[in-house]
Amino acid sequence: MKILRHWINGKPYEGSSGRRGPVLNPATGAQEKEVPFASVDEVDAAVAAAKDAYATWGTSSLAKRTT
Fold first, then answer.
1. φ and ψ at 7, to 5 degrees?
2. What does the pLDDT look like over 3-52, one tens digit per residue?
3. What is the pLDDT of residue 15?
4. pLDDT band, residue 65 (cuts 50/70/90)
5. Is residue 54's pLDDT more than 90?
6. Which long-range contacts (CB under 8 A, 24 or more apart) does 53-60 make?
7. What pTM does this model have?
8. What is the 3-state secondary structure (H, E, C) of the chain?
9. How open is the CA angle 65-33-38, to the nearest 5 degrees?
10. Residue 22 to residues 1, 11, 14, 30, 42: CA-CA distances in angstroms?
């Protein structure tokens, strides 16, 4: 089963909580992947990275943000 990763500050993270959830195909109901649930530290890291990125991202043009 393919495992999805978290993406924090431009880098993939496996997830360290030890828990996972199914990712289902809505058309068939079949499980296609699994996603790791984030730990508190991973959520904190993602929020901090988003907060830091917002300063420059928010002033970027729409064309640059969508590439």
1. -130, 110
2. 999 999 889 988 889 999 999 999 999 999 999 999 999 999 999 999 99
3. 86
4. confident
5. no
6. 53/9
7. 0.71
8. CEECCEEECCEEECCCCCCEEEEECCCCCCEEEEEECCCHHHHHHHHHHHHHHHHHHCCCCHHHHCC
9. 65
10. 10, 22, 15, 9, 19
- Structure-token pair, residue 40: 């508190």
Q: How far apart are CA 67 and CA 64, in angstroms?
A: 6
Residues linked to residue 7 through DSSP beta bridges, in sequence order: 12
* 7 contacts: CB under 8 Å, gap ≥ 6: 13
Sorted by sequence, the CB contacts under 8 Å of residue 49 that are 6+ apart come out as 8, 9
Beta strands 31-36 and 2-3, pairing class: parallel
